[in-house]
Task: inverse folding
């Protein structure tokens, strides 16, 4: 049984991740990189010209990865830590960084899979402790006092139109 | 600060339980949409128990999740009263909203309440 926790990372940790993704992109010859949570939330991305729809990509990659974990269970394997899709012009590589974080890498046919795997693994070795220690480092962080009130106002505004429309329809 | 909600639905049939489990990973809030018809009681109870089983399997603290029970199909005639459905399905004493999906009654109200509960539980 895995206890689910919230994922909190601070600005300094995010800067380290951004810097590392940029370097990984450079040395591995990949086109797009994203760190996402296993629940499908994007954390940060690195890319130059290629900008896929990150929100959908993160949700779908996380669900595919979760499906592979279920496959592992059925096959009595403790874990599958890698998901790879080979396309005609683009490849997708999703690997597990920590219990709660995945790394998405896309790269073209001109880049060797082995090179991507090698540098990705090296990056994971650096990223893993950042996320595994994130809880200890950020335990004291709390939301601003007015967060609930301000988010509540945004939600009220968001639903004002649809609720108004429904009342008018009746 | 930006807040983003991801909305997912789960398959109604319990033999898709593996898919239900996947969707529940990382969940912050849930809406249990109950069919108010008397003939659908067994399916409601089965889905309700299955939901809690899956949440406990993944180690969730049930008291920290936003949970709303939506009683759907209130426009039909052969239905349980709200009090009866409450007794049958609402052991957590969660907020209940009466709804009718075909007219939209209570639908956005449910979603709005769930969003607000999730926000209230954050931090």
Result:
């Amino acid at each position: 049984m895995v206890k689910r926790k919230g994922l909190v990372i601070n600005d300094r940790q995010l800067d380290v991740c951004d810097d590392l993704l940029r370097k990984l992109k450079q040395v591995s010859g990949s086109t797009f990189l994203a760190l996402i949570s296993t629940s499908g939330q994007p954390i940060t991305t690195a890319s130059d010209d290629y900008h896929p729809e990150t929100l959908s990509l993160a949700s779908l990659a996380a669900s595919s990865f979760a499906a592979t974990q279920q496959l592992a269970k059925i096959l009595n394997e403790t874990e599958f830590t890698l998901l790879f899709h080979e396309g005609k012009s683009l490849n997708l590589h999703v690997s597990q960084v920590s219990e709660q974080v995945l790394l998405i890498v896309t790269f073209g046919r001109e880049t060797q899979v082995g090179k991507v795997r090698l540098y990705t693994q090296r990056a994971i070795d650096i990223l893993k402790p950042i996320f595994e220690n994130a809880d200890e480092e950020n335990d004291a962080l709390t939301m601003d006092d007015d967060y609930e009130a301000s988010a509540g106002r945004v939600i009220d505004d968001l639903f004002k139109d649809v609720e108004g429309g429904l009342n008018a329809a009746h | 600060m930006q807040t983003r909600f991801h909305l997912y639905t789960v398959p109604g049939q319990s033999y898709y339980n593996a898919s239900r489990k996947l969707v529940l990973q990382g969940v912050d809030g849930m809406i249990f949409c109950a069919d108010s018809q008397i003939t659908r009681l067994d399916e409601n109870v089965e889905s309700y128990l299955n939901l809690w089983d899956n949440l406990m399997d993944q180690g969730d603290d049930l008291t920290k999740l936003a949970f709303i029970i939506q009683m759907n199909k209130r426009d039909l005639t052969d239905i349980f009263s709200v009090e009866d459905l409450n007794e049958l399905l609402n052991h957590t004493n969660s907020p209940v909203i009466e709804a009718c999906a075909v007219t939209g009654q209570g639908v956005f109200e449910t979603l709005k309440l769930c969003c607000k509960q999730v926000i209230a539980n954050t931090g």
In short: Residues 27-53+65-121 of chain B form a domain with the Rossmann fold fold (CATH 3.40.50.300).
